[in-house]
């Protein structure tokens, strides 16, 4: 097996494992949005949802 084939197999395994974890509710996605202190922005301090 070549290095590329090995990498592809590992990548596919990673994607399948991630898909199964999302499906089973064992993994989620979080997002953090930050601004530099003192930088101008129009972001609310708290989200309404």
Topology:
Elements: H1 3-23
Report on the structure:
The chain has 49 residues and is mainly α. The protein has a domain of 34 residues. Helix content is 43%, strand content 0%. It is built from one helix and no strands. The relative contact order is 0.08. The model has no long low-confidence stretch (mean pLDDT 91).
What's the number of helices? Answer: 1
Radius of gyration (CA) equals 19 Å
* Structural class estimated from helices and strands: mainly alpha
Percent helix: 40-55%
| Number of distinct beta strands | 0
Order of helices and strands: H
Roughly how many Å apart are the termini?
A: 50 Å
Average per-residue pLDDT, rounded, comes to 91
The profile of the biggest β sheet is: none
Contiguous runs where pLDDT drops below 50 for at least 5 residues: none
The geometry reads as elongated
Strand content: under 5%
What's this model, at a glance?
This protein has one helix spanning 3-23. With 49 residues, the chain is mainly alpha-helical.
């Amino acid at each position: 097996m070549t290095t590329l084939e090995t990498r592809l197999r590992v990548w596919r395994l990673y994607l399948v494992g991630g898909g199964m974890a999302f499906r089973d509710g064992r993994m989620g996605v979080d997002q953090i949005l930050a601004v530099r202190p003192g930088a101008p922005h129009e972001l609310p301090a708290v989200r309404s949802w």
